[in-house]
Amino acid sequence: MSALAIRAYVAVVTRLGDTRRGATAVEYALLLAFIAAVCISAITLFGGTTAGLYSRMFTAGGPWH
């Protein structure tokens, strides 16, 4: 191989060789997706109960009357 080809190969490997940043980005994306799924599930499960609680509280005049 010529010196120019070796330098080009080293440059490409150096530029693409560090895949830790990509792996970290994927891990953070999976963590964010999990947190979003938990939040959506909690809102779906407890949303109706919470809305009913607030409705009864405002109909009764609330604790400030």
Description:
The chain is mainly alpha-helical and 65 residues long. The chain has one domain. It contains 2 helices and no strands. The chain starts with a helix and ends in a 6-residue tail after the last helix.
SS class: mainly alpha
Strand fraction: under 5%
Q: Please count the beta strands (DSSP E, at least 2 residues each).
A: 0
The overall number of domains is 1
Q: Work out the radius of gyration.
A: 27 Å
**How many helices?**
2
What's the rounded overall pLDDT mean?
78
| Cα distance spanning the termini | 87 Å
Q: How much helicity do the residues have? A: over 70%
Reading the helices and strands in chain order gives HH
Q: Which residues form runs of ≥5 with pLDDT under 50?
A: none
Outline, from the CA principal axes? rod-shaped
Report the biggest beta sheet as strand number plus sense, adding barrel if it closes: none
Secondary-structure blueprint:
Blueprint: H1 3-16, H2 20-59
Short summary:
This protein has 65 residues and is mainly alpha-helical. It contains 2 helices and no strands.
Structural key phrases:
65 residues; mainly alpha
